[in-house]
Structures are given as structure tokens and as C-alpha cells.
From TrEMBL:
Gene3D superfamilies: 3.30.1130.10
Function: Catalyzes the conversion of 7,8-dihydroneopterin to 6-hydroxymethyl-7,8-dihydropterin.
Protein's UniProt keywords contain Transport: no
Pathway: Cofactor biosynthesis; tetrahydrofolate biosynthesis; 2-amino-4-hydroxy-6-hydroxymethyl-7,8-dihydropteridine diphosphate from 7,8-dihydroneopterin triphosphate: step 3/4
Catalytic activity: 7,8-dihydroneopterin = 6-hydroxymethyl-7,8-dihydropterin + glycolaldehyde
Protein name: 7,8-dihydroneopterin aldolase
UniProt KW keywords: Folate biosynthesis, Lyase
Organism per entry: Leifsonia virtsii
Domain Dihydroneopterin aldolase/epimerase: 12-124
Length: 127
């Protein structure tokens, strides 16, 4: 998507994908694992798929969900920022997708004060 193009208004949204994985800076996070919750918004033009009722002209959201989960489960890393980048790359590998927003929540983050959520959010495009 060029800098003069705006983001498409159509999107596929996956919310609340729960994944058990071993990411984190601390040894106990890597050993015990924890739950992560991932939200993905993939921006793409859905008009061709809608007009032709053609799954081949869009992204299969069921398969995309499985790919996102697999991306989060593999290769433990220290930062959820890295996990978010990995998920964004997975989504952008689908040619119809022009841009993606990824939020990775870490509800069991090792924080010493009460909290409702910890998350990182990134937006990437096919620039």
C-alpha cells in the first residue's frame, strides 16, 4: 500500500484467540508457559469475494486463525512485541491483505501491582 493510498475499509477480524505458549523474559515463564490472547484485524478489499461469493478471492478466516495460533506457539521469545511482529508477518503473507493490526495480550504478565490487561498493539502494511 503506497503512502498515498488509504487503508481499505473492509476487514477480517479475529478477536480473543487464546494460545498457550512459553514466551517471556523470566525462566518460569519459559518453563511453565502461560496464556496469550491475540486480536487480529486484516484489512483487504472484500468486494470481489462478496460479489462472486468466492472464498478464493478472500482470506479463509478459519485457516488464518490456525496460522496465527501456530505462529504464537512456536519458538519462545522474550518479548510479546516479537510475537506481534511474527503474527503480522503471517497475516501479510496472504496476498489480498494490505495491512494488519495485531494486539497480543499477556493476561498473566509478571507484574507486581493489580492490573486488568497488558498488551502490545502494532500496525503493519505491505509497504
Amino acid at each position: 500500500m503506497s503512502s498515498t493510498q488509504s487503508r481499505p475499509t473492509d476487514s477480517i477480524v479475529l478477536t480473543g484467540l487464546r494460545v498457550r505458549a512459553n514466551h517471556g523474559v523470566f525462566d518460569f515463564e519459559r518453563a511453565d508457559g502461560q496464556d496469550f490472547v491475540v486480536d487480529v484485524t486484516a484489512w483487504l478489499d472484500l468486494s470481489v469475494a462478496a460479489k462472486g461469493d468466492d472464498l478464493g478471492a478472500t482470506v479463509h478466516y478459519g485457516e488464518l486463525a490456525e496460522e496465527v495460533v501456530a505462529a504464537v506457539e512456536r519458538d519462545p521469545v522474550d518479548l510479546i512485541e516479537t510475537v506481534a511482529e511474527r503474527v503480522a508477518a503471517t497475516v501479510l503473507a496472504h496476498e489480498p491483505v494490505d495491512a494488519v493490526e495485531v494486539t497480543v495480550h499477556k493476561p498473566q504478565a509478571p507484574i507486581t501491582v493489580p492490573f486488568a490487561d497488558v498488551a502490545v498493539r502494532i500496525v503493519r502494511s505491505r509497504a
